[in-house]
């Protein structure tokens, strides 16, 4: 099956460029979706667009976008108007700077996309840019028109390709200082912290994305199959009530440690992979 692409253009590093294609890294295609129905007839419902002033229905071809510059006052903006503010980043990812990989803050990241060479001719230049980032352990910062808006993006080597991630602007972020302003400054007691660390060591495993199971999706599919067959699904057993006896935090931590030991042997701690030794000069064939 041919791969689907959401954008095609060029990846550029100084005077080196190559044709690339982009495709979303995430998909909700297989998620269970519901339609809105009329409960009495079972028929699907359609949404209608109503003019707030006249109360009349409006055809979709008569719909446009508008910017409210004053209360109830709008400027209409057509597609051709937006084309006039098109920027070079509509077709080219020109890497402007690089940042150390470990300085990337996940909080600022948005959607992920895969970037790959668009043809065989582009593969060599693409590989050079990808491998140079990998060996320097850096990510590139650029700008690109995404969904009609220019956004900063970060490009990072991933496997044989490149992972492109949109970045949020400061005005899209909430202040963590404001969000955490109600948290006091007191430090947690060291013995309790050590107890919590021991629980964490017992529960530490290597991350495996394949182990992430959507239990709600599975339960929904079971319910739908049962209803389609004319049957029903039994309601789950009610959750166990919290223990009546109230214990102190430190006692709860100690009991947790004992419970984890009884449940399974202590999990092996994560061992970070050793970083590959940097290649020496002349290890890669130089290009003219």
TrEMBL record:
The keyword Nucleotide-binding does not apply. Pfam families: Ku. Residues 260-270 have a biased composition (Basic and acidic residues). Coiled coil: none annotated. Keywords: DNA damage, DNA recombination, DNA repair, DNA-binding. Residues 260-288 are annotated as: Disordered. InterPro entries: DNA_bd_Ku70/Ku80 (IPR006164), Prok_Ku (IPR009187), SPOC-like_C_dom_sf (IPR016194). Residues 55-185 form the Ku domain. Residues 271-288 have a biased composition (Basic residues). Belongs to the prokaryotic Ku family. With LigD forms a non-homologous end joining (NHEJ) DNA repair enzyme, which repairs dsDNA breaks with reduced fidelity. Binds linear dsDNA with 5'- and 3'- overhangs but not closed circular dsDNA nor ssDNA. Recruits and stimulates the ligase activity of LigD. Homodimer. Interacts with LigD. This is Non-homologous end joining protein Ku.
């Amino acid at each position: 099956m041919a791969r689907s692409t959401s954008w095609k253009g060029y990846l550029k590093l100084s005077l080196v460029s190559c044709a690339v294609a982009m495709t979303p890294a995430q998909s909700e295609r297989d998620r269970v979706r519901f339609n809105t129905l009329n409960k009495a007839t079972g028929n699907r419902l359609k949404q209608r667009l109503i003019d707030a002033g006249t109360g009349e229905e409006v055809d979709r071809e008569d719909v446009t976008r508008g910017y409210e510059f004053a209360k109830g006052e709008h400027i209409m903006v057509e597609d051709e108007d937006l084309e006039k503010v098109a920027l070079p980043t509509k077709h080219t990812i020109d890497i402007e700077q690089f940042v150390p990989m470990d300085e990337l803050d996940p909080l600022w990241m948005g959607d992920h996309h895969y970037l790959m060479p668009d043809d065989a001719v582009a593969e060599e230049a693409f590989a050079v840019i990808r491998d140079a980032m990998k060996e320097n352990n850096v990510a590139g910062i650029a700008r690109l028109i995404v969904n009609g808006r220019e956004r900063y993006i970060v490009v990072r080597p991933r496997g044989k390709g490149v992972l492109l991630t949109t970045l949020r602007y400061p005005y899209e972020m909430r202040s963590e200082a404001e969000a955490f302003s109600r948290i006091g400054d007191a430090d947690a007691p060291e013995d309790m912290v050590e107890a919590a660390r021991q629980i964490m060591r017992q529960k530490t495993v290597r991350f495996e994305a394949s182990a992430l199971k959507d239990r709600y999706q599975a339960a929904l599919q079971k319910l739908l199959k049962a209803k389609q067959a004319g049957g029903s699904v039994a309601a789950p057993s009610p959750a166990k009530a919290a223990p009546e006896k109230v214990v102190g935090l430190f006692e709860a931590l100690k009991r947790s440690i004992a419970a984890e030991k009884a449940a399974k042997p202590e999990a092996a701690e994560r061992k970070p992979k050793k970083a590959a030794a940097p290649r020496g000069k002349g290890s890669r064939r130089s290009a003219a």
